[in-house]
Amino acid sequence: MPTNPTRRAALAGLLAAGLARPGWAAPDRTAAAAAKKELEDLWADLAGDEFTASRALLKLAARPKEAVEMCAEKLKPLKIDEKRVRALLADLGSEDERKWKASLEELEYFDPRLAIDLPTLMDEVTDRVPRARMVAILSGDRKADQLLERKEEITLGRHGGQKEEVYYNFRQGGSWWAEYKIERINVGTWGNRRKYWTRAVRAIVLLEHVGTPAAVAVLKELTTGHPDAQPTKAAKEAMARLEKRK
């Protein structure tokens, strides 16, 4: 049957405009979802070992716009108040696994010592479960419930004083270093490791490399964190170098 000339002309117009074509389909959401997952995977890799993180940095540097947008979403200045810290520490003792793990995740980045000093934390958090999970966070190299496997109470030992520098250690059968100075966290031999701080520092290197106004805006926001925290210092140093390039 011959095609109606009017309909044929209309179809030709739609085809020319790209609005109608054989096999037309909605935008490929699968591809967009895959691209988002790749970025999320790269962000996770940025907290990994040096080899894994280096590969992630190179891949993210090749996608500067998306990388900066992700940093703006994921990175927060390292500052938290006492009220929030105490609420999160209380949640560490929750029987709801999702609740205590969410608190654990937040405290892994917003270290409790940013708002409350180490001796006070140990004086206030005395219940066995939240105390063990908190000490695992403060230790930096222990799994959340690792210290719950032992029956011994976790205590804080204080050493030095007067002419010697004060230092602390955790005790539970044996003993291990307990860092109380913010400036030594994730720094040097004795600074307990914080993988999320390490990732933040690596992301700061990426933002400095990109150097766009959007990247600089993220760096500037990060400089408002705790002045002694390693990522805050790294952001300030990056901003200073960028200023010299102007």
Question: Quick recap of the structure?
Answer:
This protein has 246 residues and is mostly helical. The protein has helices at residues 5-17, 29-45, 50-61, 64-74, 82-91, 97-109, 118-124, 128-139, 195-210, 213-222, 230-245; strands at 155-161, 164-172, 174-178.
Compute the CA-based radius of gyration: 25 Å
Q: Ranges with pLDDT <50 over ≥5 residues?
A: 17-25
User: Globular, elongated, flat, extended or rod-shaped: what is the shape?
Assistant: globular
Give average pLDDT, whole number: 89
Main sheet: strand order: 1-2-3
Strand-helix topology:
Blueprint: H1 5-17, H2 29-45, H3 50-61, H4 64-74, H5 82-91, H6 97-109, H7 118-124, H8 128-139, E1 155-161, E2 164-172, E3 174-178, H9 195-210, H10 213-222, H11 230-245
Helix pairs in contact: 2-3, 3-9, 4-9, 5-6, 9-10, 9-11, 10-11
Quickly list its features:
56% helix, 3-stranded antiparallel sheet, 246 residues, mainly alpha
